[in-house]
Predict the 3D structure of the following.
Amino acid sequence: MRALNIKPDKTWRIALALLPFAILIGAYIYSSNVRLAENPNDKLLPGFATMGEALRQYALEPDARTGAYLMWSDTLASMTRLLIALAISTLIALLVGIVIGLLPMAGATFGPVVSVASMVPPLALLPILFIVMGLGEASKIALIVIGTTLKLIRDLALRVGDIPREQIIKAQTLGASTTQIALRVVLPQMLPRLIDAVRLEIGPAWLFLIAAEAIAADSGLGYRIFLVRRYLSMDVILPYVALITLLAFLMDLALRILQRKAFPWFAQARAT
Amino acid sequence: MTAIAFQNVWKEYGDHVVLEKIILDISPRSFVALVGPSGCGKTTFLRMLLGEESPTRGQILVDGVPLKAEPDADRGVVFQRYSVFPHLTVLGNVVIGREFEEAGAFGRLYGQARRKAEADALELLEAVGLTGHESKYPAALSGGMQQRLALAQALMRKPKILLLDEPFGALDPGIRADIHILMRRIWNDSSLTVVMVTHDLSEAFRLGTRVIAFERPRNRPEELERYGATLSDDLSASPVAQDKRGASVTRDLEVWPRKIAGGAEKVVPMETTKIESNFTNSGPSPSA
C-alpha cells in the first residue's frame, strides 16, 4: 500500500499525536538526570520536582515583599494587556479592512500606506513608544496593537476582495445601499474569517507583549522570566514558558470553538 | 412591462473590441435567450444590461430612459454560481431583499414588518418548491435548489427585468428540466422581461420567445483581437432591428410554437419543438 493511503484510525491518531510530546519529555528527563547525577546543584536542567516546588511557591504562596501570588498576578497583568490590545486591533482591523476592501476610493487612498506601514518592524518602534507614552501600560498595549493591526487590516481587505463579485452585484440588484451591503453581506462573512486571522496573530501578539515586558514592566509573565534569568532560575522560567504556551493554545482553541458555534454556516460553505 | 433598447452599442477594452454595433429592441414581456460560443461577449452584454459595465459607444434604454450606471432593484439577476448569500438561511436569503428595501442603513427588520416579510418569503419559497428547507444554509442545498433559492430571492424585490447568466448550466439534465418548468411558470405569472445567457441551444429554444446568437464574424487569427462579436442571428421577428443592421449577415428565426406570456402553461416536449426559419422579416414579436 502506498504511504499516502495509510491513514490512522482514532486511537492511533491520539497515540501518534502524544508520541512526540512523550519523546520530548522523556529526552528532557533523561538529560536532566544525567546532569544532576554529575552535579546535584546544576541549574540548567532542573528536575520536575524542583520545578514543581518553584511552581508551588509562585502559585500558592504570597510573595514576601508584595504579598501577591506572583504567578497569578503575572498572568492577570499579561492577559489584561494582551486581550485589551487584541480587542483594539481586531475592532480597528474590522472597520478599516472592510472599508478598504469594499470601497475602491478608500482602497486607493489607504491601501498603499497600510502596505508600507505594515513593513515597519514593530519592535523598532518600541523605544519611540516608551518615549512618547511612558513606561506604563499604554506603551505595551500600543506595541501589540501596532504589531498586529496592520497585518489584520491587510488580511481582511484581501478577504473582502475574495467575496465573489456575483454576491455584491446580487445585493445591489436587491436594492441594497453601500452601508447595507457592508453590514448585511460583507461584515457577517468577515467575522469568521477575522477569527482565523486573529488566531494567526496570537503568536506575534505574545512576542510583542513579552518583549515590552522584558524591557520595562513591574509585573507580567515576560517580566518575570527576564527577572529570574539573572539567577539562572530555570526552575521558574521553564514552567512560565509552559504556562505562556498553554495560554496561547487555549486562546487559539477558544477562538476555534467560537468560530464553529457562532458561524455554523462557515464550515459548510468552506467545505463546498 | 419593460422594453429594452440597445442603440448601436459597442464595448471595447483598449484595442480589443468585444461587442460591436449591437442594435436591438427587446419588447416588453419577451423572454430573450442569448446563445453563442464561449468568449463571444454574451456575458459582457449581460453585464452592460446589469449596469455593471457601461458601453463604450451607444446607449441602452429601458422604457425609453437611459440605463442607470450601476445595478439596482429594477433588474434582478441569477448567476450560475454565488448568487445566494452563504451566511444566511434559505429564509434569510429571501427576506433580505425586503430588508434592503424597507429597513434603514442597518438593513434589518423586526416585529410586524419582519413577520410580513417572512410570510411573503415563505410564499415565494413554496412557489419555487423549497418549503421545508427554510432554516438550512445554502451550502446544505443541492445545485438545483440553490438556483431555485436564487430565483425566489430575485423575485422578492419584484424586478422589472430578470437577467439570467447561464443559471442552469451546472445542473443535471433531470433537475434542469424541472427548473425549466418553474422558470416558464415564473415568466407566465409575473410581468417580467427576461434576458437569459445560455450555452444550451435546446434550453434557449424551449424557454425563449426569441433567440439571439452572438458570433465573431471575422475569425482570422490576426483579426480576432481587432473585431468584436456582433449580432449574427436574431432568431425571431424584430421589425425594428431589421433595417438597422450593419454589414454582417443576420437572420430571423421564430421560436415555434409561439409562447404567449401569461398564457396557460403547456409543457411542450422537446421533440415537438420546431424551429421555423424565416429569412425575411415576418414574425411579430411576442406580446403580452
Chain B has two domains: 4-74+159-278, 87-142+151-158. Chain B has eight helices and twelve strands. The CA atoms of residues 84 and 150 of chain B lie 6 Å apart.
